[in-house]
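forwarding from the other thread:

> can someone predict this with flavin-adenine dinucleotide?

sure thing
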Amino acid sequence: MSENNPREFPAASSLKVAIIGAGLGGLTVALALRKQGIEAQVYEKARSLRPVGAGLTLFPNGLNSLHAIDAGLVESLKSAGSKGCMVNMKKSTGEMIMQNPLTLEEKYGQPMLNIRWSRLQEILASALPPDIIHLNCRCIAFEQNDKGVEVDFEDGNKVQADLLIGADGINSVVRQTLIGDGSPRYAGRLSWRAVVKYRHELLHPDESTFMIGSEGKNFTLIDVGGGYIFWSAGALSTDESCLQSAAEVKSRVLEVFAGWAEPVQSILEATDANDIVERPIYDRPPLQSWNKGRVTLLGDAAHPVVPVLGQGANTAFEDAWELGECLSHAPSIEAALTGYENSRIQRTQVIQVRSAFQGARSYDPDAEAFVRSVIEQAQMNQSEFEEWLYNYKPCVF
Ligand SMILES: Cc1cc2nc3c(=O)[nH]c(=O)nc-3n(C[C@H](O)[C@H](O)[C@H](O)COP(=O)(O)OP(=O)(O)OC[C@H]3O[C@@H](n4cnc5c(N)ncnc54)[C@H](O)[C@@H]3O)c2cc1C
């Protein structure tokens, strides 16, 4: 950097970038930057990239972003996961409400891909040189000036960088230092989830089943490939506290879903209590800006959503691709970050607001009718959509 002009942009290839967080967003942005010839170091607080007991659904927007970063990566994911071909919607009694065959690949060039979180993280991490991922490094603060950013870690170490990317999730320390908007907001529901190697006559290969109850509860079962089923359950709860022991958690989820039709009872019984993750559901309201100087945010640190549209990781992949593009084409770090923020904020705001609304409605007493109408609207083509939109008749109460 020249002394006369401290904001002059170092050639992208000589930029020193520090990424906080080796989650799905942090790993993907490291890959996206490498694609542009930019070396980044990733700092992760965990001691190892241990498996997270969850499955994820990747949609064409996320897969197309990963494909733009590294086409081979998407092929590896497809071999490891399950291409979703059908979504079943059922009542808690087991009665089928509707079946939605998926045609995303024909329309958008990529399928819906269900995969274990741990496999996805492994595949992303294995595409990076291992020496750029620094484990057991908990970021506690940073300071920036015109010349760079200094990042502080819990163990007393410091790192200097030209650019800092906070990809440290919904409780982001980078966001707190940058924006300081406090804790995430509780969405009023608890969730339970696990990944199990499991077979059942009601669970067909490459299918997802969404079961919905009228009392603010739902249960999802997804084939995530390799013989594994990801189940995920949610229930309204005014109390966001989690139980201490695995056995208590298993008893609670069995009690909450007592009386639900198969395969709910069988898969819960078959799941090892130690594999069940109980979590309150949180999100945050959208931000109007998430950059300052040489620091920006990405993924859940920037725009966390409640898990309903399956877009948290997918939009993190979009962020990663776009940030890489902006950094390689803009004349300065500031211009790159402004371009990144401008192109990302409006889209992610819509997804955050839509997720919050749809998430809340999915637990209402008439959730079944609501979810059915969402699926039907999603199947409309443009002229049908216009007809639905303009055919509104004010009703007389
Ligand atoms: C039940 C459930 C189901 C979901 N289903 C889907 C789905 O189907 N599709 C989808 O797209 N998304 C889904 N999501 C959302 C998705 O998992 C997240 O949006 C995504 O993982 C966000 O990635 P991230 O890298 O931004 O954050 P995270 O995955 O939270 O990663 C943040 C990383 O930063 C590290 N870290 C945190 N603080 C520090 C610190 N101070 N210093 C260093 N490291 C730190 C953490 O250890 C972690 O590794 C789901 C989420 C849940 C809970």
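The longest strand covers residues 185-197. thats all i got for now
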